Amino acid sequence: MGCVHGKCCCGEHTSSDDGSTDYRETGFVRSHRKNILAQRSLKRAPVPSHNFILEYTFFTQRGYYPDSPDKENQDSFCISTNLQGNPNVHFFGVYDGHGQLGSQCSNFVKERLVEKLVNDPAFLEDPVQAYNSAFLATNQELRSSNEIDDSMSGTTAITVLVIGDTLYVANVGDSRAVLAVKDGNRIVAEDLSSDQTPFRKDEYERVKLCGARVLSVDQVEGLKDPDIQSWGDEESRGGDPPRLWVPNGMYPGTAFTRSIGDSLAETIGVTALPEVKTFQLTPDHLFFVVASDGIFEFLTSQTVIDMAASYMDPRDACAAIAEKSYKLWLELENRTDDITIIIVQIKGFSNSGTFRVGSDDINVGAVLNSRTGTPEIPAAHESDVHRSVRTSFSELHSDQPEASVMGPVHSAECPRPIE
Questions:
Q1: What is the per-residue pLDDT for 30?
Q2: Class of domain 23-193+276-387
Q3: Which ranges of 17-149 does DSSP label H, i.e. alpha helix?
Q4: Which residues, 6 or more positions from 171, have their beta carbon under 8 angstroms from its beta carbon?
Q5: Whole-model pTM?
Q6: Are 216 and 279 in contact (CB under 8 A)?
């Protein structure tokens, strides 16, 4: 169905008996199928050491770029279970490529990062050190690649490694992982990662010491005073965030302070060294979300968790969150970013009960702990499940929405920043 003025026209939603919405059969999925890759069945990864199950699904959507209608999805992701043949070790990662060769970068990292992590002798004894080594080694291998020029291209990476009842979260860039935590009669979003952008004072000061100029596009083009080093915060940043520029040039314009690749940006402080955080699971931890900033650009962590918790089926939740994000992009930017989301339910730790999220009652027990809310699925046995978002189901056919776009104006002297 065509869309007017870039607004996404979606069909009516079909509600099930439990009040959830089956987005797999609605206008959003039907009208965008050519560019969607979604897991149509839930997969399970048991963690026998602590007697619980991870049940996961994913959804990815190529962005809508009116000026580049053939631009491919630069997101990629990796779901890898039973690492080293160990049924208690599982990995989930999302990679958001950017620049002219962003897709190649994200797919390169998708393959190499988990491989280097697993092959590290210290992998299970010291996962934090293994993570640091894997990120830096992957970055170096990308830098040395003859097929990919990473001077102005690269990828962010948000990854969650599950070892028994512990989550190890490693991040470079502005994609995000969020944990749903039961708190009395609420479900609260707990960020498992911290976006690495110039909005963060510590990251701002670090890149400044490395020689970066930190300015918005309007500032670097002379439309705003460059001496006013105040851009608000990430939640209210609008469409002109602070970016990194070399001292005497109009590049690279990255809005993040860490990534894999981006060798020119590395000269002004952008680094592939991840921030690694450790979290111990408890019965109050219900599920976690791993997603690219295509999801979080206009949706808060709490909104994403609220939406995910309100659906019986996480496949519906993925589609609903993607649709909401897609609509907001078109309303506020008249284009969309690539969108990728993985939802991982933690089944076995949670107790049944009815809780209230916002103004809506939800049955958390039914959502996260029921053996009948979702079909019984055999345990996953594959040791490496790598999916490229450039792949699509052969039967999916249709076009992106039509739209006329007036994007930000950039002068000839200032190339468009990396996106």
A1: 53
A2: alpha beta
A3: 27-32, 102-119, 127-144
A4: 156, 157, 158, 159, 177, 193, 194, 196, 258, 274, 275, 276
A5: 0.79
A6: no
